[in-house]
Specification:
Blueprint: H1 2-15, H2 29-40, E1 51-56, H3 59-66, H4 73-76, E2 79-86, H5 91-104, H6 113-123, H7 128-152, E3 156-160, H8 165-171, E4 179-188, H9 207-210
Antiparallel strand pairs: 1-2, 2-4, 3-4
Helix pairs in contact: 2-7
This protein binds flavin mononucleotide (FMN).
């Protein structure tokens, strides 16, 4: 059973590729919810999830965001996922997280005091920019999960860094929310005939070169 699941996962990962041209077919809301749930289940350092996800369905908004971009997938995708990282970490950010932990685990806040001190001494000592970079790394873990979840559902996807982050931040009013857009994930279904990338062989290192096993 487990062997079959991992075989399917490897097959899904071989099947997926960075889609350059999407068809008009739409991702169902049921499948979309699963991808979002998978991303939300991603690991993050300390568990604080220092990023938020914006799911753009509106064709006019996708058009506005994708104008003048070489990545036509922004406009042509069924749904565009925008990963937006915290631009800083404040004491209130940590408090909010710990309140959630306390509530979910029914733990008195006093019991989390040590944890709070540890997190605070690490995060609040860093500059806002360091914490933004740290938050961005967490967002990329979510991006990876989203790619895998999409492939598992046979939804095509493109991870994208090629976009005007400042423009996205302005249109989506992210600054007001203490966020900055960092990476995108376009979802949809490949237009196999018109996508030059759809039939190209996947290029990866031989495993022996990629991974070193140290006994
Ligand atoms: C963080 C990241 C950013 C990327 N940015 C873009 C992009 O802006 N536009 C694009 O078409 N592909 C983009 N890609 C896709 C990569 O070029 C692609 O994943 C890589 O060539 C490996 O090919 P494969 O994903 O088809 O296996 C990006 C991939 C990653 C992981």
């Amino acid at each position: 059973m487990h062997k079959r699941i991992i075989r399917k996962l490897i097959d899904d990962l071989k099947w997926r590729y960075a889609t350059k041209k999407f068809s008009d077919k739409r991702v169902s809301s049921e499948d979309l919810d699963k991808v979002i749930e998978a991303i939300n289940l991603s690991a993050s350092s300390i568990g604080i999830q220092p990023y938020r996800l914006f799911v753009i369905d509106s064709p006019s908004l996708k058009k506005e965001l994708g104008e003048n971009s070489f990545n036509s997938q922004i406009v042509e995708s069924s749904h565009l996922l925008v990963f937006a990282a915290f631009d800083s970490i404040k004491e209130g950010t940590i408090d909010k997280y710990l309140q959630r932990v306390a509530k979910e685990r029914e733990t008195p806040a006093e019991q989390l005091a040590d944890f709070k001190n540890k997190i605070s001494s690490f995060l609040l000592a860093q500059t806002d920019n360091d914490n933004f970079i740290w938050s961005t790394k967490q967002a990329y873990i979510g991006l990876g999960t989203g790619l895998i979840a999409a492939a598992n559902l046979k939804i095509d996807a493109t991870p994208m860094e090629g976009f005007d982050a400042e423009k996205f931040d302005e249109i989506l009013k992210l600054k007001e929310k203490g966020l900055k857009s960092v990476v995108l994930l376009a979802l949809g279904y490949r237009d196999e005939e018109n996508d030059w990338n759809s039939k190209l062989k996947k290029v990866r290192l031989p495993i022996q070169e990629f991974a070193t096993i140290i006994n």
